[in-house]
Amino acid sequence: MNPFGLGMYCLADAAKLVRAEPRTIRRWLYGYAYTARRGQERECRQVPPLWSPQYDREELGEAVIGFQDLLELRVVREFVTHGVPLQVVRRCLQTAREVFGSDHPLANHRFVTDGATIFADSLEAEARAGEHDGELLDLRSRQYAFRSIIKDSLYAGIEYENGRARRWYPQPRSRVVVVDPACQFGHPMIESCGVPTAALYSAFLAEGRQKAAVARLFDVSPREVEVAVRFEEQFLQAA
């Protein structure tokens, strides 16, 4: 598969960018098996992935994902953080795929405005299925505030083209660092020059933490070095 324009992220880097555990996103994207007791016997059960990643793990020989997967994971993480059962997230994804005709509907611009109905329908369908008890079935006492989950800040910094996410500014207020799947395989970079933030940070450490020296070396401004350093340090803290 040609990775141009898709972006390419190992699970460790993806986990840092979306602030989730690598093990968690591996389970979301590739499924997992577990053992359950049935009477006196134990049986192995398989939980399928939430969706098929943009890259085939068997073809590449390792688990890597694309830019659309990355943005989709951000939304799923937000759902789960707010206590939404994964089965409801699964139903929501399935319905959204059908409505939008997209493999990655949560990264679709329309989901920001149309997703509330999809989410409500998914929640009610899960309750009707009776697969969860008490708190989920009692919809009147357990209302999920969709707007508190899919809030503007979650989509801030994402630019769309024909309704599809095209690039992401993870620090939307400064818009210096960009994640663009068409450049540097989608890894964070300084937009004005295309230099990866990781390269600037490595040089910063090698040059004795002298921002001016790094700025001269890469022909960028000291402010861009400062932004890159701050971004990478936050990135490492998320590890």
Annotate the secondary structure layout:
Layout: E1 9-10, H1 11-18, H2 22-30, E2 32-38, E3 41-47, H3 57-60, E4 64-65, H4 67-81, H5 86-100, H6 109-129, H7 134-137, H8 146-149, H9 152-155, E5 158-161, E6 164-168, E7 177-178, E8 189-190, H10 197-206, H11 211-218, H12 222-237
Antiparallel strand pairs: 1-4, 2-3, 5-6, 7-8
Helix pairs in contact: 5-6, 10-12, 11-12
In short:
With 239 residues, the protein is of the alpha+beta class. It has helices at 11-18, 22-30, 57-60, 67-81, 86-100, 109-129, 134-137, 146-149, 152-155, 197-206, 211-218, 222-237, and strands at residues 9-10, 32-38, 41-47, 64-65, 158-161, 164-168, 177-178, 189-190.
Which key terms come to mind for this protein?
two-stranded antiparallel ribbon; 3 domains; Arc Repressor Mutant, subunit A; two-stranded antiparallel sheet; 239 residues; globular; alpha+beta
Structure description:
The protein is of the alpha+beta class and 239 residues long. The chain has three domains: 1-65, no CATH class; 82-155, no CATH class; 169-239, Arc Repressor Mutant, subunit A, CATH 1.10.10. The strands form four sheets. The chain has a two-stranded antiparallel ribbon with strand order 1-4. Strands 2-3 form a two-stranded antiparallel ribbon. The protein has a two-stranded antiparallel sheet with strand order 5-6. Helix content is 49%, strand content 13%. The chain contains twelve helices and eight strands. The protein is globular.
